[in-house]
Design goal:
The chain is an all-beta fold and 219 residues long. Helix content is 2%, strand content 48%.
Length: 219
């Protein structure tokens, strides 16, 4: 685990959405009973996720999952469905398929634009963090203890599935994995925004992570 090396070069992978294939979902297409937004990526509906193949990264909805792959070490690539929420609880099933375990993958909330959002990440070698990207800095600000990734035995490592749960409620940001709480903090910077999913590799190699059963509910 060499997170300290990447604290200074974990740069945001800016997605120029104008060049991506975005669709506009219908008002009720992706809203289920009791949810604000949901997608099982089964192909029965179009929920607006940006899909792309550029810069060594690919985001695609195929074979019943949303799959993101990247070979650009130190950059995060993501996709959003083009929604807007305030207080939410987000859950998703994430599975690392291949690539270095020294990676990062997870959930975005309160996304304003490519420079302003919160990110909730776990890694294939059993670490986690909550981070904030904000205009004026190309570096992520880690909100976890000592401003670094923290280890957890609750995270399934390597080629494995993890159930991620994120809370963005008022100023409180929380991250749980596999039904167990990892970290909670407060930050007042962003109060509304889009949701999303992201993947990064922190060393040479191609990280491939697939996501399924994405759900957004009110707290």
């Amino acid at each position: 685990m060499r997170r300290m090396t990447f604290l200074l070069i974990f740069l945001v992978g800016i997605l120029m959405l104008a060049s991506c294939n975005l669709a506009n979902p219908g008002p009720d297409d992706c809203q289920g009973s009791g949810t604000l937004f949901q997608d099982d990526f089964g192909g029965e509906r179009e929920c607006g996720w940006a899909v792309y193949n550029q810069g060594g990264a690919v985001a695609a909805v195929e074979e019943g999952v949303l799959r993101i792959s990247t070979s650009q070490a130190g950059k995060i690539w993501w996709t959003n469905p083009g929604q807007n929420f305030d207080d939410v609880i987000i859950t998703v099933q994430a599975r690392q398929m291949s690539g270095p375990n020294n990676n990062a993958y997870g959930v975005i909330c309160r996304y304003q634009n490519e420079e302003n959002f919160y990110v909730f990440l776990i890694s294939g070698d059993g670490y986690y963090t909550i981070g904030k990207y904000q205009s004026g800095s190309e570096q992520v600000t880690y909100l976890t203890d000592e401003a670094v990734y923290q280890p957890s035995d609750f995270i399934n490592q390597g080629v494995a599935t993890n159930q991620i749960r994120v809370g963005c409620i008022g100023n409180t940001l929380s991250l749980s994995v596999n039904g167990l709480p990892l970290f909670e903090t407060t930050d007042p910077t962003f109060v509304t925004g889009d949701v999303g999913l992201g993947v990064s590799t922190l060393e040479p190699g191609t990280a491939v992570v697939q996501f399924d059963n994405f759900s957004v509910i009110a707290p």
